[in-house]
Amino acid sequence: MITGPGRSGGATPGRRWVLHVDMDCFFAAVEVLRHPELVGRPVLVGGDGRRGVVAAASYEARATGVRSAMAMTEALRRCPVAVVLPGDLDHYRSVSGRFMSILDELSPLVEPLSLDEAFVELTGSERRLGDPVVTAARLRQRVHSDLGLWVSVGLGPSKLVAKLATEAAKPTPDPRGPVAGPGVVVVRPPDVEGFLGPLPVRALPGVGPVAADKLGRLGLGTVGEVAAAGETTLRRVLGGPAARQLVALARGNDPRPVVADAPTKSISSERTFATDRADAGELEGDLAVMADSVATRLRSAGLTATTVQIKVRHGDFRTLTRARRLDAPTDATATIREVAWNLLCGLDLSPGVRLVGVGTSGLAAAAPAQLRLDRLSDDEERILDRTVDSVRRRFGSKAIGAARQAGNVRTSGAPVGTPGHRNDAGVSDATL
Fold first, then answer.
1. Pick the catalytic residue: 60, 111, 117, 121?
2. Which residue of 115, 215, 263, 364 has the fewest C-beta atoms within 10 A of its own C-beta?
């Protein structure tokens, strides 16, 4: 079914057409496909412990007020009959790869936003694919035919309009079962204002609770009211640049291009604990596993990192981050582990640790390694990392655990935070 403003007639050649597609309840839908006995039942994917969170919820679960990122304990309080599954990220990635391959057949400009969501530039595709409106409808049927999963599709003259059209295409949660949405919503250029106008201001990107509250005090609750108010009115509460951008979006002006193969900005891994950890020693093994995961993914992607960071969340949900810029880019497990350990030891962990994470940023394509006279073991570490990677590719990711190659992450020398101290990883202690 194709719906949306101006539903009669086809697309106009020569106009820009951006398609946005989103798999409905992706993780949960994949699990129901694998377990047909769960059809019609509320399904939650995520951690099933006191500290677990919901990664995905089926529409049956959403009808009870459950949402992604909600604490699993709260989700089960709202929906005690829900079936909780731990999830299988490797399988989800495999399904996502097949999904993205279908999109790649439509256009060379596919911009993935996540495993289950992407923009596709269809401008100028009419000669090869036909009417973009028909293409959008065919895509939905193709995904269902090939993968057994339903997607929602939005088509419009910009990324903003296409994404919001997708939201309008989605099913609606209901305790008796999801109410089917149109599946495909098309918004043509003459109808953009009428489509955007009634939407709440929170529908616009960048408008969070604080900005929405400020706009509400001005009597601006819808996108149309923001568009009509103009930049001068909004400048008083948002400032010049923010006001200018928001009014432009409210009027449907979004020139952002669809960017294929957008570069990865960061790679990270984190873990939430069932009970708070009290000191760094309790976190050593977990830190080694996360550093190993991050470094392995860097090498797999052919990337190196210039910055290592950690994230620590206390039991009261206070979150601290620390980062350190490296003297040279790295993809070495030992270096990332060592830097993360030093950063962790520089924090007061006495309030208890609920979550810890290791991440890298400042990513770039890996270059040939240079000899480091101050660290003669670099070559040995590099050989070890590549050997571990090779064994895991051949025998599975669990063939060699992080702990077996980690060694002792503790370093000697001056305490972390000592001005001018340089540790064995060849990094300075300047914290970003």
1. 117
2. 263
